[in-house]
User: Which sequence fits this backbone?
């Protein structure tokens, strides 16, 4: 009888030892190295970031992943301030076990770059939660799926993205440079970005899981040891899910909240919840195993429509709130002097329709104030301005077009002016300028010039202006 109990005790111990799929100790080891001072915050163009690249590549190889491209490295050049630096995505493949379904892919990704050293160079940004936690989870999932007994029916692409902090450049580069056939066979994408604070967050966020037709049901089905939150069909724009979502690919942000010292030197490895990360890894493996085995992975209609149309990887229609501040003046073309410039401002809404990846039409509705200095003090006008511009470019762009303004009131010094007499109530003119777009934000430098004098009769006085405009795209 004693031997019988010893036998079952040994079986129990073996199950504990070998039945544990993921290890908090291994997750902790990854994070402590990636967030260490040796890697100096993993900033672009630094030796520390290159060490992180090598660490991830070595792990992909040892886990049994094959290179997705001819090499594990997908390199591209990126301009940071005035210097060009080499950025590197690390991409590995686990081929599916089903002869037919292995032609389809599920992507698991996490960005590994961070902010580097502080400005005074005395400290560094460890980026333990953001995003050594996501990379550690990705590496352990690579080890899991790299084992022959865990191969899913569909193929798995593992991507450690570079240059996320600079503007999602790594994930953008991947979707822009993988073949159209391959991109069309990517059925879902999961991005692990900040997954180290499960207990503090009270659950796991899965924003975007609702873009899968049965995503919400799938999310709750496997939530045995943790609570799932934010199972919406909105794709997160501030992480690597965004470029995939814009191509009509269901993209899920796996996230335990901004509970760590976000983008601060205090985001250190000792603060993370490693048992919680173990639960996140196990939960994701269960969910992905289920998803990869389905006869068909279907997206909701909105995503299918994006995927089904040629070239709809860009968002066709956007709108936002805009505000501009600058100066204006009035040029007295028939006189020997010009009015001195004064304050100009505008604010309102902006609508953009992109009919080509590089071309769009922008329509704005603005309340406009412009003024200049006159002999009586300040000459000012207020009205409704409607600019219409053709834009060329995306991140950096140029634009030109025309505007119409209907003026509501005007003053010269303390005197209110009447549009029934000599002052022109309507104005047509030209817009032109350059702009920069970063995710949801636009900054534009633009000039305006009227085609007509502000007076119906009398001296020819031409209105001009210069604005710096800021737009937040909703």
Assistant:
């Amino acid at each position: 009888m004693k031997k019988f109990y010893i036998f079952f005790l040994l079986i129990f111990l073996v199950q504990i030892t070998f039945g544990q799929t993921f290890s908090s100790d291994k997750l902790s080891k990854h994070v402590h190295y990636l967030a260490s001072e040796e890697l100096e915050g993993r900033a672009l163009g630094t030796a520390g970031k290159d060490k992180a690249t090598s660490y991830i590549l070595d792990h992909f190889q040892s886990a049994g992943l094959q290179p997705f491209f001819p090499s594990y490295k997908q390199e591209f050049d990126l301009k940071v301030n005035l210097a060009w630096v080499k950025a590197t995505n690390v991409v590995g493949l686990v081929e599916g076990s089903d002869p037919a379904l292995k032609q389809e892919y599920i992507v698991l990704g996490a960005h590994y770059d961070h902010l580097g050293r502080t400005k005074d160079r005395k400290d560094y940004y460890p980026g333990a939660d953001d995003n050594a936690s996501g990379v550690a989870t990705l590496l352990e999932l690579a080890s899991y799926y790299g084992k022959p007994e865990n191969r899913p029916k569909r193929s798995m692409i593992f991507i450690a993205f570079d240059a996320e902090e600079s503007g999602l450049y790594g994930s953008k580069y991947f979707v822009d440079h993988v073949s159209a056939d391959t991109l069309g066979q990517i059925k879902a994408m999961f991005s692990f970005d900040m997954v180290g604070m499960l207990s503090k967050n009270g659950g796991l966020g899965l924003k975007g899981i609702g873009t899968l037709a049965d995503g919400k049901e799938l999310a709750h089905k496997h939530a045995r040891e943790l609570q799932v939150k934010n199972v919406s069909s909105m794709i997160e724009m501030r992480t690597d899910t965004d470029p995939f979502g814009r191509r009509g690919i269901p993209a899920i942000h796996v996230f335990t909240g901004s509970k760590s010292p976000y983008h601060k030197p205090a985001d250190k490895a000792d603060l993370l919840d490693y048992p919680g990360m173990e639960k996140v890894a196990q939960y994701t493996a269960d969910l992905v195993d289920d998803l990869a085995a389905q006869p068909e992975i279907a997206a909701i209609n909105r995503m299918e429509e994006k995927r089904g149309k040629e070239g709809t990887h860009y968002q066709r229609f956007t709108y936002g709130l805009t505000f501009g501040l600058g100066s204006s003046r009035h040029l007295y073309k028939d006189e020997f002097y010009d009015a001195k410039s004064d304050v100009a401002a505008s604010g309102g809404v902006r609508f953009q329709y992109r009919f080509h990846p590089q071309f769009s039409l922008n329509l704005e509705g603005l309340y406009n104030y412009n003024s200049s200095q006159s002999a009586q003090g300040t000459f000012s006008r207020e009205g409704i301005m409607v600019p219409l511009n053709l834009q060329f470019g995306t991140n950096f762009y140029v634009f030109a077009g025309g505007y119409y303004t209907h003026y509501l009131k005007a003053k010269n010094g303390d005197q209110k002016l009447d549009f029934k007499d000599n002052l022109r109530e309507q104005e047509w003119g030209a817009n032109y300028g350059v702009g920069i777009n970063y995710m949801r934000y636009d900054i534009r430098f633009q000039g305006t010039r009227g085609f007509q004098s502000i007076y119906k009769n009398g001296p020819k006085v031409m209105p001009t202006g210069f604005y710096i405009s800021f737009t937040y795209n909703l």
Observations:
- Residues 274-293 form the longest helix (20 residues).
- The chain is about 25% helix and 35% strand.
